[in-house]
């Protein structure tokens, strides 16, 4: 999750979070339109999912959380406390 200078949280998935943050910050091409001009941006939380399918599911679920719950994640709450765990095949 990325936090803007005004405290707005943005969630997304990436195989390279450092590169993606540079894109969002405007250092590299390809950042999200939603973050243009919203800097400075700070990476405040990240989690490695076992695969892209799970990452996409968690991204969707994370975006459904209230800001207070997102802040709980940032503060160290366990992911399993806030998001349903995906069923393994």
Summarize the helices and strands and which ones pair or pack:
Blueprint: E1 2-3, E2 9-10, H1 17-24, E3 42-43, H2 52-64, H3 67-75, H4 79-82
Antiparallel strand pairs: 1-2, 1-3
Summarize the structure in words.
It contains four helices and three strands, in the order E-E-H-E-H-H-H. The protein has 89 residues and is mainly alpha-helical. It has a three-stranded antiparallel beta sheet with strand order 2-1-3, with helices on one face. It has helices at residues 17-24, 52-64, 67-75, 79-82, and strands at 2-3, 9-10, 42-43. The chain starts with a strand and ends in a 7-residue tail after the last helix.
Descriptive labels:
89 residues; mainly alpha; globular
Uncertain spans? none
Instruction: Give the total of beta strands.
Output: 3
- The helix/strand class is mainly alpha
Count up the domains: 1
Portion in beta strands: 5-15%
State the shape.
globular
Strand order of the largest sheet: 2-1-3
> What's the end-to-end separation, in Å?
28 Å
State the share of residues found in helices, binned by percent. 25-40%
What is the typical, i.e. mean, pLDDT?
A: 88
What count of helical segments does DSSP give?
Answer: 4
Radius of gyration: 13 Å
Order of helices and strands: EEHEHHH
Largest sheet features: 3 strands, antiparallel
Summarize the structure.
By secondary structure, this protein is mainly alpha-helical.
């Amino acid at each position: 999750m990325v936090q803007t200078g005004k405290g707005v949280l943005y969630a997304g998935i990436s195989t390279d979070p450092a590169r993606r943050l540079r894109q969002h910050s405007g250092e590299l091409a390809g950042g999200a339109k939603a973050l243009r001009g919203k800097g400075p941006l700070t990476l405040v939380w990240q989690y490695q999912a076992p695969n892209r399918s799970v990452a996409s599911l968690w991204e969707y679920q994370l975006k459904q959380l209230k800001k207070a719950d997102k802040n709980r994640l940032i503060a160290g709450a366990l992911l399993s406390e806030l998001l349903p765990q995906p069923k393994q095949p």
